[in-house]
Amino acid sequence: MDIKTARTTGGWPQKSAAHYNQLPTAPTSGKVCTYWLEGRCNRNPCRFLHDASLPRNVYHRAAKQSSYMREDCHGKGPESSPVDSASSTSGERGDSSKDKNPHKPGEKVCHYWMSGNCVKGDACPFLHSWYHGVDFVMLAKLDGHKKGVSGIALPSGSTKLYTGSKDGTARIWDCHTGKCSQVINLGGEVGCFTCESPWVFICMPNAIKAWNIQNGASYDISGPVGQVHAMEVSNNLHFAGAQDGAILVWKGDSEADPFKMAAPLLGHTRGVVSLAIGRDRLYPGSIDQGMVVWDLHTLECVQELVGHTDVVMSLICWDEHLISCSLDQTVKVWGVPTEGGSLEVAYTHHDDHGILALSGLMDACGKPALLCACNDNIVRWYELPSFTKRGKIFSRREVRTLQTAPRGLFSTGDAAGMLTVWKWLDSPKSQIEQLPHSMESC
After folding, report:
1. CA-to-CA distance for 329 and 355, rounded, in angstroms?
2. Which of 92, 266, 315, 378 has its CA at 20 to 30 Å from residue 232's CA atom?
3. How far is residue 250's CA from residue 261's CA, in Å, rounded to a whole number?
4. Whole-angstrom Cα distance, residue 350 to residue 332?
C-alpha cells in the first residue's frame, strides 16, 4: 500500500504576496484573491486573480486612527481632518481624488473603517467618515468615559464642558485644549446631567447632587426613589423625573435653602425618562407611553397626550409646537389648531428605527434643524418643518445624549462613553438670539 507523506509548511521560508505575484499564475476566476489583497495568499498558481494593477492602498491595511482629534490636526487620516472629510462626502473633491476613487461612496459608513480594519482604502464603496453632510464638521473626539455618556452641560460663559456617565464619574473638559482637567468619582451611575447657571445637577439613584460652579457650594438633594432619568429647571422651579413615575419638585426660595421640596406631580404609572418646558407647561415622557401635561403656575394637570405606542424617549419645544420621539419609530409634532384649544398631533414622521433623543438648533443658514439619535447608531439631521433629510452622524454605539451650545456648537455622547464635539460651518452671529431657550446651553 502506498503511503503518502502529509505536507507541512513548517520549514518553508515565508514569502510575501509580491513574491508570489511575480511567479506565473493561471487564474481560472475573474475575482481578485482576497487572501492576496491581505498579503497572505500562499497558493501558486492561484485560481483567483493577483492583479498588480490595483491601487496599492487596496491591499495595505489601514492604520488605526487616534480616538482624539483636534481641529488643527490635518493630513493624518480620515479622522484627523474634518474639513477634508466633509468635502469627501459631498462629492466636491478634486480631479486627482476622483481618479483614485472611481467608486462614489454611498450614505452608509464602512464598519471595518470605524474599527480601523478596512483594507480597501479609496476603493471601498462605503463612507470613510464619521458623518455625511457638508454644512458641519467634527471638531474633536473626547475619549475618557468607560460607559455611556448620560449628560452633557456647557454653562453659559464657561470655558469648561461638563459630562456625566453611567461609569459613575463626572468629567470636566477644557474647551480650548479638549483635554479632561478633572475626574469626579460619584459612587453611582449618572442617570442625567444638566445645568442652570450657576448650578450643575448630577442625577443619581435616590439622590441629586447640586454643585455651584461659581462659589463651589454643593448640596445633596434627597427625595427621588430609584434612578433620576431627566431634570428641567424653570423660574426657580426644579423638576426631576424618577424611576417610580413621580415628578419631584423643588422651589428655590432662598440662598440658605435653594432646594425646598414641594408636592410631587403624580400622573405616570412607570418611570419618567424625559422632560421639556415651554409655553408655561411641563411636558414629561414616560415608559408608560403617555405624556401628562402640567401647568407651571398651578402645578396642576391640564392635558394627557396619547399617541405613542412605546416609550417616549425625548421631548423638545420648538416655536409653538411640542416635538416628541419614541421607540415606536416615530417623531410626532404636536400643535394647537385653534386658540385656546388643546395639543393635537399635527404631523407624524416615520423612521425605520427607534428614536432615542432629540435636539433642536439653527443650522449654518439660520434654518431650524432637528437632530434625531436612532438606535441604529446614526444621528439623522432633518430640516424643519419639512423633515427634509440633510445629513447623518455615525457612531460605534447608539447616541443617547445630544446637547446644543452657542456659536454653532453641538455635542453627541454615545453608549460606549465617546463624546464628540461638532460645529456648523459659517454659523451666523445671530444664531444665539434665534435659538429658543429650550435649545440653548444653560
Report:
1. 6
2. 378
3. 4
4. 9
Pairwise CA distance, residues 134 & 376, whole Å: 22
For strands 265-266 and 246-251, give the pairing: antiparallel
Amino acid, res. 439: M
pLDDT average, residue stretch 355-375: 92
Cβ atoms of 173 and 182 closer than 8 Å: no
Q: Are 276 and 317 in contact (CB under 8 A)?
A: yes
Identity of the residue numbered 153: A
**In this predicted model, what pLDDT tens digit does every residue of 400-425 receive, in sequence order?**
999 998 888 899 999 999 999 999 88
Name the strand (E) or helix (H) holding 235: none
Report d(CA 422, CA 202) in Å as an integer: 24
**Given pLDDT bands bounded at 50, 70 and 90, which one contains residue 98?**
very low
Q: Are 344 and 335 in contact, with CB atoms under 8 Å apart? A: yes
Antiparallel, parallel or unpaired: β 388-394 and 378-383: antiparallel
b/e code 216-234 from CB counts within 10 Å (16+ = b): eeeeebebbeebbbbbbbb
Q: How confident is the model at residue 5 (pLDDT cuts 50, 70, 90)?
A: very low
Contact of 313 with 327, CB cutoff 8 Å: yes
Pairing of strands 330-335, 312-318: unpaired
C-alpha cell at 70: 483636534
d(CA 129, CA 138): 10
- Cell 488643527 belongs to 72
- Measured CA to CA, the distance from residue 380 to residue 391 in angstroms comes to 6
Task: Give CA–CA dist 195/308, Å, rounded.
Answer: 29
Rounded CA-CA distance 400/360 in Å is 15
Please say if the pLDDT value at position 242 is more than 70. yes
**Strongest mean pLDDT among 29-38, 184-193, 212-221, 337-346:** 184-193
Residues in the chain, total: 442
